[in-house]
Amino acid sequence: MSAPITDLDDVDGLLAADRDGLLRAAAMAGAGVRAVSQAQAEGALHRLADLRPRALIVVTGADSVARGAADLIVATIASRIDVPVVVSPLLPGWIGPLDVVVIVGDDAGDPALGDAAMRALRRRAELVAVVPIEGPLMDAIGDQPIGDLSPRLVVDPRFSFCRFVAALTAVCTALTAVRLTPAPPDLSDVADRLDDEAAADHPDHESFHNQAKMLALRIAGRTVAWSGDTAGAVVLAAHAASVSFTVAGTVAQTVSEPALVARLRSGGPATAPAADDLFYDPDFDPPRENAFRGILFTTAARAWSAEHRLGGFGDVDVVAEQVIGAGSTLMPGPATGDPPADAPADLTAYLVLALRAELAAVFVRLMGEAA
Questions:
Q1: What is the pLDDT of residue 312?
Q2: Taking a C-beta distance cutoff of 8 angstroms, is the pair 117, 141 a contact?
Q3: pLDDT for the residue numbered 4
Q4: Second-level CATH architecture of 26-188
Q5: Is 23 exposed, middle or buried (CB count within 10 Å of its CB: 0-12, 13-18, 19+)?
Q6: Is there a common fold for 11-20+191-370 and 26-188?
Q7: Domain residue ranges of the chain, discontinuous segments joined by +
Q8: Would you state the pLDDT for residue 7?
Q9: Could you read off the pLDDT of 24-40 as tens digits, one per residue?
Q10: Which residues of the chain have pLDDT under 70?
Q11: Res 343: pLDDT
Q12: Domain boundaries 11-20+191-370, corresponding CATH code
């Protein structure tokens, strides 16, 4: 029987196992964000420029990826924009001409999205579509003018998170008559950063220098609890848990940092970390004594504090975005202080980590198929 974990640095084996093109699909996150940026530059949302809406309503239907993206916008932008942001699977009944409705998802046949589009337009609300405009949805919209952020690239729906976040960010920034301070990062810059991350996590790069492969080795064959040190990071953790299940079939949970600490403490006193998984060989090494792994997402600016809080536990990893070209994650000392939690500027870091988690899930999937 083959070992369940194979050499991630066997590039030919990985590529041969990737029969569905998952690595390429995940790596297109930057292209998806850039397409949103291009639509933004072409004036796709010009109808929103002078509006001061009563509410911004995001309808996600049954799409859990869209719901996660909307939750991240709520965590990072909602408290800093002068318009209420409402996230719902269905269009609320109080919608009227003073509202902006955004339908988000990958399934144009989702009846919740078609109903939301039809009722929003009937009640003369402004509509923005972050959904493929085809089939029943095209019939619901007809020839009425809308904000069109429908996807320009066909991508596996499991990897739409970054594009959805970018589209919702574009809608918020398009409301130029509404105060939003501080402003979110420029989407073209975010796209460049995601392309850099995808390039750094290319299967050609060895595990020692590949953050996605390192994360895959941490979680493969383990019970994983994903967590974060802020509300936005917990949303990111939920997306990582979801994509690791839908892509790699691994069962994971999402917990708050206090719950993660409680779980770590329940396993006994803090111990020194076990041998690094990069050197673990299931053919020669004994079975792992502890199959549990905690992953805490944070940003580089808060990573030092997170390491300080969790450094006594050997079965948890603090994961922050990495500056491309640097040898390790930047961890400022305590003198710098932690920045405000979940600022709009954190969106870049969160999307980089989302892409890394998606690529890690693909690597775990491919390790199993290559075995």
A1: 80
A2: yes
A3: 40
A4: 3-Layer(aba) Sandwich (3.40)
A5: buried
A6: yes
A7: 11-20+191-370, 26-188
A8: 77
A9: 999 999 999 999 999 99
A10: 1-6, 267-290, 322-339, 369-371
A11: 83
A12: 3.40.50.10490
pLDDT of amino acid 34: 98
3-state secondary structure the chain: CCCCCCCCCCHHHHHHHCCCCHHHHHHCHHHHHHHHHHHHHCCCCHHHCCCCCCEEEEECCCCHHHHHHHHHHHHHCHHHECCCEEEECCCCCCCCCCEEEEEECCCCCCHHHHHHHHHHHHCCCEEEEECCCCHHHHHHHCCCCCEECCCCCCCCHHHCHHHHHHHHHHHHHHCCCCCECCCCCCHHHHHHHHHHHHHHCCCCCCHHHCHHHHHHHHHCCCEEEEEECCHHHHHHHHHHHHHHHHHHCCCEEECCHHHHHHHHHHCCCCCCCCCCHHHCCCCCCCCCCCCEEEEEECCHHHHHHHHHHHCCCCCEEEECCCCCCCCCCCCCCHHHCCCCCCCCCHHHHHHHHHHHHHHHHHHHHHHHHHC
User: pLDDT (tens digit, 9 = 90+) per residue, 69-106?
Assistant: 999 999 999 999 999 999 999 999 999 999 999 999 99
